[in-house]
Amino acid sequence: MPKQPKTFVNANITITDFVLIYGDKISGHSKMVDFMFRYWCTLRETLPSHKPRRKDINPKDFTPYLDKVVLIDLLQESDGLHFFIRLIGTTIASYYGELTGQYVSAMANKEAADRLCHVCEQVIETQAPILSHTVGISLEHEFMDAWTIYLPLYSIDGTAIEKVLLCSDLKARKKNTA
User: Fold this and answer.
1) Are 143 and 137 within 8 A, CB to CB?
2) I want to staple 155 with a disulfide (CB 3.0 to 4.6 A). Which of 32, 137, 150, 162 is the partner?
3) Which of 151, 156, 155 is nearest to 126 (CA)?
4) 141 Cβ neighbours under 8 A, 6+ residues apart
5) Taking the domains of the chain in order of start, what are their residue ranges?
6) Would you state the CATH architecture of domain 8-175?
7) How far is CA 54 from CA 47, 59, 105, 122, 156, in A?
8) In angstroms, rounded to a whole number, what is the distance separating the alpha carbons of residues 131 and 125?
């Protein structure tokens, strides 16, 4: 029997299973993803540590995509690792709500929160960017492609990932006539 996709629902979009893409297969899916991936790779290649940090990122370098950015702090607390939303762009907030200054676990859409935490954990484990691809259906009955790149940002001393920079490219594919 074929596996049935999970379905995630929030106020604005229903999301089915997602796929994670690694390494050189990240490029070629979205202009925004390609730009952000090249930006991170250029930093990695030019920095002496080869580990981009928050202080190395200049938001002016990706102004056209700021509304699609999420910055997650990784906080190690006594009860484990927690993901804190440092900031969320307006386009992303239109789908998930204004979550700046909240823990990911506070998201109303628990499945989306679990997915976000899972991919951030994969970024920590692999110490590398990851692209996720998710297909969903918006309230307007449009099929949506969501391409989200997760970029690790290291601590000042470069010993650990302390933040993950996400950038999501949401595209309508076609109307759902069902």
Assistant:
1) yes
2) 162
3) 151
4) 175, 176, 177
5) 8-175
6) 2-Layer Sandwich (3.30)
7) 13, 10, 23, 19, 8
8) 14
> Rounded to whole angstroms, how far apart are CA atoms 177 and 40?
39
DSSP readout, 78-141? TTEEEEEEEEE-HHHHHHH---TTEEGGG-S-HHHHHHHHHHHHHHHHHTS-EEEEEEEEETT-
Q: Are 148 and 134 in contact (CB under 8 A)?
A: yes
Reported as a single tens digit per residue, the pLDDT across 32-89 is 999 999 999 999 999 999 999 999 999 999 999 999 999 999 999 999 999 999 999 9
Which two three-digit tokens encode residue 67? 């509304």
pTM of the model: 0.86
Q: How far is CA 83 from the centre of its chain?
A: 12
Which residues, other chains included, contact 126 with Cβ-Cβ below 8 Å and sequence gap of 6+? 22
Bridge partners of 164, per DSSP, are 72, 152
- Residue count of the chain: 178
Phi and psi for 2 in degrees, rounded to 5? -65, 150
Say which residues have a Cβ less than 8 Å from residue 81's Cβ, sequence separation at least 6.
74, 75, 121
